[in-house]
Design a protein that fits this description.
Elements lengths: L3 H11 L3 H14 L1 H14 L6 E5 L5 H9 L4 E6 L2 H14 L4 E5 L11 E7 L8 H11 E12 L26 H11 L3 E7 L2 H20 L7 H21 L7 E7 L1
Parallel strand pairs: 1-2, 1-4, 2-3, 4-5
Antiparallel strand pairs: 5-7, 6-7
Helix pairs in contact: 3-9, 6-7, 8-9
Length: 267
């Protein structure tokens, strides 16, 4: 299934006003389990910081840049992506919303390097789309300040793209790999220069169920017809209480396996 066209249509629907866009971000924060994991990691990182320079590497709809910027107007954020249409929409919204500490720019992560410039780099659901991942990791390492942290969220090789057997088609057609093995991503990060790495499974048993309820089934409906957007609010009223509980246990538990990876690496 091609995931980006559905994302684009949803983005256009919620981009009609700053209010709708903020509602969209709030919905993503509530529904997406990866947002729960990212927010928890950010809360741990940001404690005691009065200023920071941050790179949002593959910013997409800009929800993580908005989350950080709205909490910390003293932080400076550069949000980069290869899709100019996404960036243009973000620029327009952030300007209307009065968020002034985020800059949006077209950059190719395979080529972009800004030596010792960032205290934090976040790359959320990006690396599964990039074939030249080691080159990107090297650029991240070079661009971090000493002591800076890289935060990655990406599918694992244990069904992270809903692939369970060799040769099976990914649920998300834009992925260039179905997921990372923990050792693989650790080895690639070490090759890039990182030595202090914390890689953990996310989307364990509770997260897998939540993902199907919150994401897979709604996306399959929308892929059939965007008319299903009318019934999605009623669908989530019924299913979200269960997904909320499952998300809580996934974020606060330790998993021996999982379909996602949450990775922190320090320079």
């Amino acid at each position: 299934m091609e995931y980006d066209p559905i994302k684009d249509k949803l983005g256009a629907f919620f981009n009609r006003s700053p209010f709708y866009r903020k509602v969209f971000y709030k919905i993503l924060d509530l529904i997406l389990l990866r947002a729960w994991h990212v927010h928890k990691a950010l809360r741990g990182w940001e404690k005691g910081r009065n200023k920071a320079s941050i790179l949002d590497a593959g910013s997409g709809f800009g929800q993580y840049s908005y989350y950080i910027a709205s909490k910390h107007p003293e932080f400076n954020i550069l949000a980069v992506d290869v899709k100019e249409d996404y960036l243009a929409d973000c620029r327009q919204f952030f300007e209307k919303a009065g968020v002034k500490n985020v800059t949006f720019r077209v950059e190719d992560l395979v080529k972009y390097r800004n030596p010792e410039s960032y205290d934090l780099i976040i790359s959320i659901d990006v690396m599964e789309h990039i074939l030249e991942d080691v080159e990107v990791f090297k650029n991240f390492y070079a661009s971090l300040k000493p002591g800076g942290m890289l935060l990655i969220n990406t599918p694992s090789d244990q069904g992270g793209s809903d692939v369970k057997e060799e040769g099976q088609e990914s649920f998300i057609g834009e992925h260039v790999r179905d997921g990372y093995n923990i050792k693989e991503i650790e080895d690639k990060l070490r090759l890039a220069g990182f030595s202090n790495i914390d890689a953990r499974f996310s989307y364990g048993t509770p997260g897998k169920i939540s993902w199907r309820l919150s994401m897979k089934y709604p996306m399959l409906m929308l892929n059939t017809s965007m008319a299903f957007i009318v019934i999605l609010p009623f669908y989530y009223i019924l299913t979200y209480p269960f997904a909320y509980i499952l998300n809580y246990f996934d974020v606060n538990g330790k998993h021996s396996s999982g379909t996602g990876l949450s990775v922190k690496a320090w320079k």
